[in-house]
Amino acid sequence: IHILMLLCGLSVESRDAIASSQKAMPPSFFAMPVNRPESCGNCTPMTPLKGKVAALRLWDAGIKWEEIETSRGVYDWHRVDEALDNAAAIHVDVMYTFGTLAPWACPDNKLPLANPSDWTDFVAALVAHAAGRIKYWEMWNEPNGLYPRKPDQLLNDIVIPAYKIIKANPNGLIVTSPAPAIETMGGFSCHYACSR
Asked: What is the reported pLDDT for 160?
């Protein structure tokens, strides 16, 4: 009752003073995923984001392992450079998300890789090519959906080797945990429920 009386006792001026003292959340609290930039044609979809977000998460942006390294040792950097140049133009940090195995390195899309150096060579080439333009490195997109029964294999074969390469970079790069799938079915993650 006393709380209600206190709230009701606030004058309109007091409530307005409280409301006007509230500050908007700064852009540093927000990031935005960038998916399928090719659907935009020749536009620059990131321009409207300038000043509104602090980082871009690159997933489904045409820069997965197999889209960059089309065959062993053959790299196509044009989409990577385009994405990083666009992010630099609007002054935001970048998160690169790992999440697929290149079919030429792993035809059955299953771990372990026949040649683990295919993976480490790719990660090293990407980190070197990005040269500090990628600040955050996400260790796999939705790992609970793709490898729900073998998290130890994903960790040992993919995450730990990539982590070591990324952290060897002197630019203070940040490795983040993966974002799990959150598709729900009756309150439970479908991937979790279906993999048990």
From this structure: 93
